[in-house]
Amino acid sequence: MPFLTHRERKLHYVESGAGEPVLLVHGFTNAGMAWMQQIAALTFAGYRAIAPDLRGHGQSEAATGVTTVEDFADDLIALLDHLGVERAHVCGLSLGGMIVLQMALDHPQRVGALVVANSQASFAMPELGPVVDGWLAMFAQPEGPLKRFQATWPAMLNEAFRESKAGQGVYESWCELARRTSGASLSQVALGMRRFDVGERLAEIAQPALVIAGSEDKLFPPETVRAISDAMPNARYALIEGAAHISSLDSPAEFNRLLLGALAGH
């Protein structure tokens, strides 16, 4: 089982395939396994897919102090170094989208094409303070990560996927993931997330980018997501009709078509 030790913390990752590397960055409270359908598509298309578990998520070690988006970007640059990858295409969803934007700003020479899905350029707005406070209160409860997952599940994926056999299987496996995740660790990540704000710097990102929104995403609605592409000089925007927040999972055929199309020219 592959691990990287960075700053005395073990970080888990999986990789598959050969060819140009594509780094897949998952969202808050999820894990690299959320990208299974993209890993398969990328592998068969001739790419090298790399899917880490972020610090405090999945099989990576817990976050023991406030962990910012910059910290995650630094972790992933260390992973690329560990794998001998000088430059990778990057694809991130939700928190993962924030992280790949940060990587493109802080380490532009390490980032090829970007795909940013169901994300936004700032999490520092005052109206999000009570939201994060609610997460912190829930994470402090017994089985807090499980309770939050169960509460947010209806907003994460569209109804058709949630009611399918595949959706039921994902629900059960992600419940198990939530049971095994530290609420204290996720609290450190939530505290770091609300410091994130690159809205005024997006024009600095010169790489070709695709920004994806889901028409049914209630967490980061399309107009919020589109603001990212509008502010970047070489970005284009795509809307997946019927997709909710985790569009890569509930609408994989269209997501993969967009992802592979964005990578094909670069």
Write structural notes for this entry:
- The chain is of the alpha/beta class and 266 residues long.
- It has one domain: Alpha/Beta hydrolase fold, catalytic domain (Rossmann fold).
- 44% of the residues lie in helices and 18% in strands.
- The protein is built from 11 helices and 8 strands.
- An 8-stranded mixed sheet has the order 1-2-4-3-5-6-7-8, with helices on both faces.
- Strand 7, helix 9 and strand 8 form a beta-alpha-beta unit.
- Helix 4 packs antiparallel against helix 8 (183-193).
- It is globular and about 50 Å long.
- The two termini are 31 Å apart.
- The relative contact order is 0.16.
- The model has no long low-confidence stretch (mean pLDDT 95).
Topology, element by element:
Blueprint: E1 3-6, E2 9-16, E3 21-25, H1 36-44, E4 48-52, H2 69-82, E5 88-93, H3 95-106, E6 111-117, H4 129-139, H5 144-156, H6 159-163, H7 165-179, H8 183-193, E7 209-214, H9 222-231, E8 235-240, H10 247-250, H11 252-264
Parallel strand pairs: 3-4, 3-5, 5-6, 6-7, 7-8
Antiparallel strand pairs: 1-2, 2-4
